[in-house]
User: Which sequence fits this backbone?
């Protein structure tokens, strides 16, 4: 950017940088000063600009998104310099799946956390300590024997949530050997597991898949039948799928998107590409009702196209089922939608090219074994709102490809959720309120034997409404008639079991009563709630329990999670809670407890990713690991003041996000977001952002610790080694007597830094120089001269 500014000034143009607000102008001025851009001045009018020296950069508050060039003038904007703001970018769900758990894990005082080096401790909240005379926010931890540990907020990435339901897990002892031994044992087990998983994945990758591509013109025409514009996430997921299908390798992609966020539309387009490429498509769903709905959806979208559709489920007659199976075998049927009946051994496809599995969590072990057999030969697209822990674990470990759809459709409102003892008056009012606003209600019971009780309640307490009954043991024709009538508005209330939980789309139904909610699983509750609120109308869900009784601890935990997850796009968050409650299991076997209990879900995830990467590359990457957390103490205040961000959880979340950022541009964008959300940055926050930048440079330079004061700085290298000893000797020589290397390999850098800003700027310059030296290849020389250089480094 500075090179471009100098070029513009060299062409005789005055340069003006436009900022949205005074706060962002402050931030821009600070950034220009840090990067030694030269003279700057704030201006309010063009006359002020003309009075400046030609090489002075003018700063103004102007609401411009993009700059322009005119005779004698060049205007740059924040967006030109920083790109899209962080706020805009994070609203799109381009966040990496591997950092997902860290982002959704919130810490509460009393929670168990894991320190990478010290093990399991108890989180006691944030505390502000005086460090070398300046306030510094630290995370307080308690270990065994009431030992205390304080972690600076800029190093918070060394912590992870333990993630288990066992809050009474034993705390580790600070300085003890138990944690490291436990971690080493798990690392070896994960190494063995990763090697086996890589073999499984490699066997699939080694197979050649059918190349399928979207026919130009026809594909755009098919997409135009969808009356809405795709969200950014839908478009990204679709691009991923089309790339996979045209890659020449069998696709195995998981699309994780919340209920009603548009997974089906993505599947429709993938099916069109496969069918138009001359291959068959199988859509496998868990229930007959969902099979019927998907079949109707596919039939409507493919109307008028040379594509033959079939349906295979309990709702079709024996003759229709026989004809469908024959059509699949001889290739007459291009797309078939069905339940697990499609996985039967007597169903033979002539040329199956794409298998779409909707709501995978509902299929049993036998069905999944059959799916595994198909997966070796065809493209597989799995869709779910709440992936089972093992599926989520495999996707996040890089063993399955993952696409997230986390952007809600326009005007979608979150469902209001209430947990309460069953109260006839409240339930009656809820049903009537929905009735009088022209909507419909789901009344869901956990068992068929509970349905008569619900019927009696409606007859006695809500006689104003018409209701119908639906459950899985009904005759297929009767069930179909009831569902069609409800969909067409023939009944006000549908009393049913959880047969309605998967994928049904009734936009006019926006109230749900769940009877004995404590008897449902977490994913079941979430899926049931997803049946309402699928239009622009506010929806309400009432999770009722038996009055005067206390649910089990697990049931209570599930209900609390449901009430917490009241925002749009919470399905993936729910899956991580399920991962906490149940564990991921052994990814290769039937063991369900897994190894997560030993180190916690977040650290387990990181260790598994590392093991998988090592198995893939065939080498141990530990020596190249750049994820250690450098310690930096510059004697400056480092915190987000409570007066700036009042909410503690928000502050902690900001600290955690910031700890995972490495790129300078992302740190600048993060600062711009803070200005947008909370106003101009206080000095303490400026110091925090600067230190995070220095921390990233330390990783590049191999610096483990930096301490600075009024008289200079000391630098400790990681494992007392520097990657370019020859370059370090030259660096010390250039600085005369101001830079020295102690016998313990500590670099001493003498300077006069009485001012905090000068100290931060000076340390940034020092570490940046060391990073540049470290990045240079040592001088090409013989092995003897290399050894001599190492020796000189040791003696210097």
Assistant:
């Amino acid at each position: 950017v500075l090179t471009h500014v100098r070029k513009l000034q060299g062409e005789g143009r005055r340069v003006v940088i436009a900022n949205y607000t005074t706060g962002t102008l402050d931030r821009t001025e600070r950034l220009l000063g840090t990067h030694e851009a030269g003279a700057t001045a704030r201006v309010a009018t063009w006359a002020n600009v003309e009075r400046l020296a030609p090489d002075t950069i003018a700063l103004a508050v102007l609401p411009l998104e993009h700059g322009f060039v005119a005779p004698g003038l060049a205007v740059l904007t924040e967006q030109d310099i920083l790109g899209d703001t962080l706020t805009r970018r994070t609203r799109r769900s381009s966040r990496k799946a591997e950092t997902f758990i860290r982002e959704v894990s919130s810490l509460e005082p009393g929670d168990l956390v894991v320190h990478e080096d010290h093990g399991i401790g108890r989180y006691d909240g944030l505390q502000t300590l005086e460090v070398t005379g300046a306030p510094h926010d630290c995370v307080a931890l308690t270990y065994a024997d009431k030992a205390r540990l304080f972690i600076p907020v800029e190093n918070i990435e060394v912590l992870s949530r333990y993630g288990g339901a066992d809050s009474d897990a034993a705390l580790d002892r600070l300085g003890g050997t138990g944690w490291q031994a436990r971690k080493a044992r798990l690392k070896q087990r994960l190494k063995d597991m990763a090697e086996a998983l890589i073999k499984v994945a490699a066997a699939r990758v080694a197979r050649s898949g059918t190349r399928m591509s979207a026919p130009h013109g026809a594909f755009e025409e098919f997409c135009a039948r969808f009356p809405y514009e795709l969200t950014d996430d839908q478009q990204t997921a679709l691009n991923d799928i089309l790339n996979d299908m045209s890659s020449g390798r069998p696709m195995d992609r998981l699309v994780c998107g919340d209920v009603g966020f548009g997974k089906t539309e993505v599947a429709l387009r993938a099916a069109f590409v496969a069918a138009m490429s001359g291959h068959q498509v199988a859509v496998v769903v868990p229930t007959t009702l969902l099979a019927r709905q998907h079949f109707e959806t596919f039939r409507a979208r493919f109307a008028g196209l040379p594509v033959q559709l079939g349906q295979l489920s309990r709702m079709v007659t024996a003759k229709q089922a026989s004809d469908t199976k024959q059509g699949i075998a001889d290739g007459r049927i291009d797309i078939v939608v069905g339940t697990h009946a499609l996985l039967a051994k007597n169903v033979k496809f002539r040329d199956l090219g794409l298998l779409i599995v909707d709501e995978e969590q509902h299929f049993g072990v036998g069905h999944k074994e059959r799916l595994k057999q198909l997966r070796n030969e065809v493209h597989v697209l799995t869709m779910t709102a709440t992936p089972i822990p093992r599926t989520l674990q495999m996707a996040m470990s890089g063993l399955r490809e993952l696409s997230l759809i986390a952007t809600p459709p326009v005007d979608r409102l979150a469902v209001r959720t209430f947990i309460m003892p069953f109260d006839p008056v409240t339930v009656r009012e809820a049903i009537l309120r929905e009735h009088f606003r022209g909507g419909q209600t789901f009344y869901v019971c956990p068992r068929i034997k509970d349905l008569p009780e619900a019927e009696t309640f409606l007859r006695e307490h809500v006689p104003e409404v018409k209701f119908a009954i639906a459950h899985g043991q009904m005759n297929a024709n009767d069930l179909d008639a009831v569902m069609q009538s409800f969909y067409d508005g023939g009944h006000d209330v549908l009393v049913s079991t959880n047969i309605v939980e998967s994928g049904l789309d009734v936009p006019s139904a926006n109230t749900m009563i769940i009877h004995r909610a404590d008897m449902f699983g977490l994913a079941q509750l979430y899926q049931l709630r997803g049946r309402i609120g699928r239009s622009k109308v506010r929806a309400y869900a009432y999770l009722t329990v038996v009055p005067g009784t206390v649910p089990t601890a697990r049931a209570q935990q599930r209900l609390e999670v449901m009430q917490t997850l009241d925002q749009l796009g919470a399905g993936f968050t729910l899956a991580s809670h399920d991962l906490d409650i149940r564990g991921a299991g052994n990814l290769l076997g039937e063991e369900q407890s897994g190894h997560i209990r030993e180190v916690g879900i977040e650290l387990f995830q990181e260790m598994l990713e590392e093991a998988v990467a090592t198995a893939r590359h065939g080498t141990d990457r530990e020596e190249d690991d750049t994820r250690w957390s450098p310690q930096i103490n510059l004697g400056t205040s480092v915190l987000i003041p409570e007066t700036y961000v009042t909410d503690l959880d928000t502050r902690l979340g900001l600290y955690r996000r910031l700890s995972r950022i490495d790129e300078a541009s992302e740190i600048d964008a993060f600062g711009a977001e803070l200005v947008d959300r909370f106003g101009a940055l206080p000095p303490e926050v400026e110091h925090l952002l600067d230190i995070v930048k220095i921390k990233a440079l330390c990783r590049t330079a191999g610096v483990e610790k930096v301490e600075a004061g009024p008289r200079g700085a000391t630098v400790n290298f990681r494992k007392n080694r520097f990657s370019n000893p020859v370059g370090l000797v030259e660096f010390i020589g250039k600085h005369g007597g101001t830079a020295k290397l102690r016998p313990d390999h500590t670099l001493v850098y003498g300077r006069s830094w009485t001012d905090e800003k000068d100290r931060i700027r000076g340390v940034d310059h020092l570490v940046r120089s060391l990073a540049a030296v470290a990045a240079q290849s040592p001088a090409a020389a013989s092995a003897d001269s290399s050894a001599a250089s190492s020796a000189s480094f040791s003696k210097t």
Remarks:
- The longest helix spans residues 178-206.
- Residues 84-105, 581-594, 779-796 have pLDDT under 50 and may be disordered.
- The two ends are 39 Å apart (CA to CA).
- The CA atoms of residues 585 and 593 lie 5 Å apart.
